[in-house]
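batch_manifest entry 22 of 60
target: IS3 element protein InsE DLP12 prophage
source organism: Legionella cincinnatiensis
requested by: lab member K.T.
priority: normal
notes from requester: please return tokens only, no post-processing; we will run our own comparison against the previous entry in this batch. if the run fails, retry once and flag.
--- input ---
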Amino acid sequence: MVRNVSKEFKIKAVELLEQSSKSLRQVARELRVAENNIYIWRKHYKARKRMITQQ
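--- output ---
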């Protein structure tokens, strides 16, 4: 099943993972998304954050 999610949802998912003691698996289950999606979103989030801090 393919589900499009907003940019805001992705950011909130990554922030939930980063700011809580929950595992990636727990966050994925709570949000009903694939673990791999959160992994990819986190990778993009960190890359973007690095880019902003370098400027």
